Amino acid sequence: MRxxxxxxxxxxxxxxxxxxxxxxxxxxxKSAEDHNRxxxxxxxxxxxxxxxxxxxxxxxxxVLAETCVSQAVLYYSKGRYDQAxxxxxxxxxxxxxxxxxxxxxxxxxxxxxxxxLAISDYTKAIEINPVYVEAYYNKAIACxxxxxxxxxxxxxxxxLEINPRLAExxxxxxAIFFAKEKLIVHQIYQT
Length: 191
Description:
mainly alpha, Serine Threonine Protein Phosphatase 5, Tetratricopeptide repeat
């Protein structure tokens, strides 16, 4: 835990350093004679900071998993799922034992409708962290979307074993049971 806190502190310091270096790069150095002239620019003009896209500061940092994840989350929030997946993949290459990165990449795949890839990532997150309730839940939702109802029920049941207060899991498990019953009745009447 202490190492993570130190890493977070280092990342914050790096970000502050980047912001300061960008700020000072935007300021012009002036000699004493320049400041005494009548045509000295106003404070606003002299200290203006160039407007930056969020990605500029992130790209200047050393490549850390947290940096890639931050960029991926930004892309995901803007609906740019391919770029988010790419950044999550870079983060996984750096931190291959971080279950949350697999989980989040799974969410991006699921948002694109790539359920097999999402299920694979959720499964990997569960292998790393066997009590990752959100991974079980979202894996079940992806399985449900593929029509793999038995697997979805199994994953929802496991999520409920871990967290019995997860109302959404009860709801979705009930909806799957209802859908399966409806499917069985439909098949019976068609024969």
